[in-house]
Amino acid sequence: MGKLITTSKPLILHSKFLCFSLFYLFSSLSLALYTFLSQSKCLLRSSPYDPIHSSLFSYNSSYHPHKYAVSTSRSTCSSPVFFSEYWDALKDIQNFRDQSSSSRRVLRYMQGNSDCFGGNFSAQKRFSYFDHPNDNKKIPCGFLKKFPIQDSDKIAMEKCDGLVVVSAIFNDHDKVRQPRGLGSNTLDYVCFFMFIDDITLKGLQYHGIVSSESSRDEYKVGAWRLVKVLKEDLYENPAMNGVIPKYLVHRLFPNSKFSIWVDAKLQLMVDPLLLIHSLVISENVDMAISKHPYYVHTMEEAVATARWKKWWDVNALKLQMETYCDFGLQPWSSSKLPYTSDVPDSALILRKHGLRSNLWSCLMFNELEGFNPRDQLAFAFVRDHMRPRLRLNMFEAEVFEQVVVEYRHNLISHTGGGGSGQVLKRDARTRRAESHLLDVNGSKCHKYLSVMWNDNDEK
Fold first, then answer.
1. pLDDT band at 215, cuts 50/70/90?
2. Contacts of 142 by beta carbon, 8 Å cutoff, 6+ apart
């Protein structure tokens, strides 16, 4: 009898351990399944599409294009995106391209020669172009100085007559990352262009990503065609040079019908044809952009820009906000609907090229040249004051986190590559605001702040 009791203990312990293991396994699988299903709620497809199975490009192990991904915390969203079947989306975009191929240009651009690429107009002069009553009025939209690229690149850009995906890396600040989830015919109908400078090119050559042959007229890295820009002929600030392809894409690609701007810190995870079809065409809008995950009011972003030293000249930031308040900038309220926020995440911008989106792009570029390249600060002011009004889809931040993966900028400099260590030369200390600008009661934004704070208190 004693032997029976002695030998039964291991069996009982084994049974308990087995039950616990099965429970743990079941819980883990349930949690994994729940997470997977929750994440998929943002992206709903009517049927599977035909992806490219092979990798677009094989990187050297030293390059590490997918290190330092930024973690996300949202796994569900209140506004899921419904994708059409791949071939239906492709057909609709082809039809749109064919039907609009003979349409005349709806904007006339200012011509001339200038020492500055965009003309560097005064605020009063820039604001005078916000109201565009007819097609005869020429507007400033960059290119008052030659954009320094090779003729072979320019010809290739003009041939892109459908959808173009554009990005830029200056000062070797990011990696060249390949888009994922592309349909089998996407590369035949979508152009991928990455603008780079000499420092970035040297970094790619250092890692063996592109050939170091000096006679090369064309550089390709997977889906991307690299376009070398002689930035010394443009702006001292690399970020401002990146603003040119970001906001003047309709001028660099004059025959394109749609465009997607992708910050180089992002990796596109969904076919661009599906994105344009679901977020722009199906919504019947001129442009689609994500809402900022935290901020709603422009002033919130301005304070964060100064607080986190995203722009070092705080005095200039306050002068910018004072100028916008003086010319009618208002905090967001329900009166601005259907615009649901004043602050976007501008790392991903989807546009249908036409009068409204092209005008917005030109006006935005002029503001960024006039003040600084922090485009979230000028966004609402331009959008709310331009005429005709922009038809805009501001989709949820959760959707943004599903269609792209965000990575951190280059953290170190590479030998021969420049890296992010080479930044714009400036004073190391942040320029604080002058004392008279710290007086809130005497500020031109006093009314703006009062309304914003009262609104936040009520919430």
1. low
2. 117, 118, 244, 248, 251, 362, 365
